[in-house]
Amino acid sequence: MVYYHSSELYHHGILGMKWGVRRYQNKDGSLTPAGQKRYAKEEYKNNKKIAKEKYRAAKESADRQYEADTVEKRQAIDQEKERFEKKNAETNQHYERKIRAQENIRNKAKEEMDFWEDPDSYFYQENQEKYINANTKISELKTSKTYDEYTNRLLYNAAVVKINELYADKVRDAETRKYAAYVAAGEEYANDLKKAKELYKQSR
Questions:
Q1: Residue-level pLDDT at 139
Q2: How many CA atoms lie within 13 A of 169 on its CB side?
Q3: Taking each helix axis from N to C terminus, what angle separates 168-203 and 33-69, rounded to the nearest 10 degrees?
Q4: Is position 173 within any domain?
Q5: What is the mean pLDDT of residues 73-91?
Q6: Is 126 among the domain residues?
Q7: Are the CB atoms for 64 and 54 separated by under 8 Å?
Q8: Which of 5, 13, 103, 163 is deepest in the core (most CB within 10 A)?
Q9: Domain residues for 148?
């Protein structure tokens, strides 16, 4: 077995480091000037982070309070929307059922017309009249359906306007409180940053 011995000395450390010289801490545990500077910088970063978190938490708290203050209005609008959607569904079902019935009459009349072929025959003309009447009724039903859907939408919009008017003062007060909380949080954040900067300067 062959052993290799190296006389080279390897040193692992920080650039500028000197043997026997403590860079950040003295033997008694106190900080060196470099240590004080480093500690002050870390403390400054930490204080900035804490200030930012406080600001974010304050805004989120203001948002939650605003949501709580305006929940009644949202619930009222949601209920009105639910009634509107239910009414529209009933309107659709009502007209679709009638339209399908007329389509069946029209299709049957068309089959009879195709069967009799002769436009001058009594049975052809009788079914032709049924076909035309069914088409006319389908067109009228579709127009009525569109009108009723439009009416439903107008009633819903009018109800929402009334709800907004009913809760206008509460919502306005809630918005005022929310934005006042935003401003207060912003001022506190600015002051915290200023204090952190002053402490940093003093520590250096």
A1: 97
A2: 1
A3: 180
A4: yes
A5: 97
A6: yes
A7: no
A8: 163
A9: 78-152
